[in-house]
Amino acid sequence: MGTEGSYDGRVPARAPLRSLLFVPGNRTGWLTKAEAAGADAAILDLEDAVPDDAKAAARAEVAEAVSRSYDGGMRLLVRVNALNSTAGWASADELRAVARPGLYGIVLPKVSSADDIRLADRLLSWCEHEHGLPQGHFALVPLLETARALREAYDIGRAAARVAHLGALTAPGGDVERAVGYRWSADGTETHELRARVLLDARAAGSPHPVSGLWADLADLAGLRRFAEQNRALGYDGMMVIHPSHVAIVNDVFSPGEDELARHERLIAAVERAQAEGSGAIRFEGRMIDEAMAAASRDVLARHRGVSGSAGA
């Protein structure tokens, strides 16, 4: 993982997040709906989901929600407003207000370069010090919503060790569509290469557990499943979603089935037997496998069954 941030790069292990559900910052009561839907994480949104004249009240509401004792397994993130001088750096105060012990991470919109990440990293380090939290406690999830940011995804991923869940969001009519100029289609052909390249940049930068999104059609659940399956095939670990009805499908797509997990167990056992007999590559269920494939299978089991593996949590 990159270590260019303001600390030595040692951060808590990040777990994969299959589903990250947006919840309006002025509707924190809806967190119970997010948890009931089974979302791995909820993103309390102080940016697009809240009118300008309601942002101050929403900030206080979100800060209170984060501060409340929370015993569930769902992680809490907050999407703050962009860090820029146009807003008079009000979002720096916003970040400080919500960066509290109950928070998993900050979603940072309108990132334009690695400099934005380094600034947010310093602010979060200060918040961690203020609350007596270890360095790197807060994850930082950059949103790549400009052509420049998409082009510089690798540098953004390496700008701070706390960067996690980096990926490409390609909702119809969103910031990315306007920035790049493509014409969105349900099959995702026009964004396939973009999502694949950002995924590669995130992996190369060492940013853990990339996520993609968004599927905007609330009623087209078949389309959602196809889009999620496409993202999983590319290598993403999860997706951001905008409605509770999308959570179950996304969780299902990004979770290996019992048959798949059983196959990973058989593959590991076959490789270990072969190694005990002095062999390397062997034939397994019609394919050639070796230790590298066994290591990948151990990583899958580590994430989904708590089995020790090289990827950790």
From TrEMBL:
Entry cofactors: Mg(2+)
UniProt-annotated binding residues for Mg(2+): E145, D175
Binding site for substrate: R79, E145
UniProt cross-references to SUPFAM superfamilies, sorted A to Z: Phosphoenolpyruvate/pyruvate domain
HpcH/HpaI aldolase/citrate lyase domain span: 18-244
GO terms under biological process: oxaloacetate metabolic process
Pfam families: HpcH_HpaI (PF03328)
GO molecular function: lyase activity; magnesium ion binding
Keywords recorded for this protein, A-Z: Lyase, Magnesium, Metal-binding
Name this protein carries in UniProt: CoA ester lyase
